[in-house]
Design goal:
Number of domains: 2
Mean pLDDT: 83
Number of helices: 6
Low-confidence stretches: none
Order of helices and strands: HHHHHH
Length: about 200
């Protein structure tokens, strides 16, 4: 969801209902991946991706951008990424290092958000690089799942899947570095102003 539009405190909106529905799909998707029902898991993943796009469009066009929606939307994305990573690693489709690299970035940013919240700041504006990284990673997952299929689908999907995954990781961490730089600038400015106020 965009943060340029006016943000309201409403709870019951169409985009929020869509985001909640996407959250409820997370455990369903996890079970399908672990049990090896790849075709159904892909359907759920496609529905989730479409709903992610849809709730943003509706929020902007119907002027229903809300604070709750700005939390639900990325939360659903993060949960889908985490569940998919764990499920694919469990089945040895992806290596453990990919799980560590992506989860570590989210842990670092979670600490940053906590520090900003303690200082009285809202979450930072979502950066295009972060959205692009998430988009690439979400595209990589179904392709990596298809890589288990026989030729010619499997090998072709595997190459495309790893290309998306590596680009996604690079963009994911690039966006993370931007967020950390912005947060450090804000917190440093506050500390400098506090020192000036104390000195005066």
């Amino acid at each position: 969801m965009t943060q340029d539009a006016p943000v309201s405190g409403r709870v019951l909106t169409v985009p929020n209902v869509i985001s909640l529905a996407r959250l409820f799909l997370v455990p369903v998707f996890a079970w399908l991946v672990v049990e090896g029902y790849d075709a159904w898991a892909l359907v759920v993943l496609l529905v989730s991706g479409a709903s992610d796009w849809l709730d943003g469009v509706i929020a902007r066009r119907m002027h229903q951008v809300t604070r709750l929606g700005q939390m639900l939307d990325p939360a659903a994305d993060r949960l889908f990424i985490l569940v998919t990573l764990v499920g694919l690693a469990w089945r040895d489709i992806i290596p453990t290092w990919l799980v560590v690299v992506l989860v570590l970035r989210d842990v670092v940013l979670a600490v940053m958000l906590f520090l900003l919240a303690r200082a009285g700041y809202p979450p930072l504006r979502v950066h295009l690089a972060g959205k692009a990284g998430t988009f690439a990673i979400m595209y990589a997952f179904p392709l990596l799942m298809l890589s288990e299929w026989p030729a010619p689908v499997g090998p072709f999907a595997g190459v495309l899947g790893w290309a998306c995954a590596l680009w996604g990781v690079a963009l994911y961490w690039f966006a993370g570095a931007l967020y950390l730089t912005q947060a450090a600038s804000v917190l440093h400015r506050d500390a400098r102003e506090a020192r000036r106020a104390k000195a005066s």
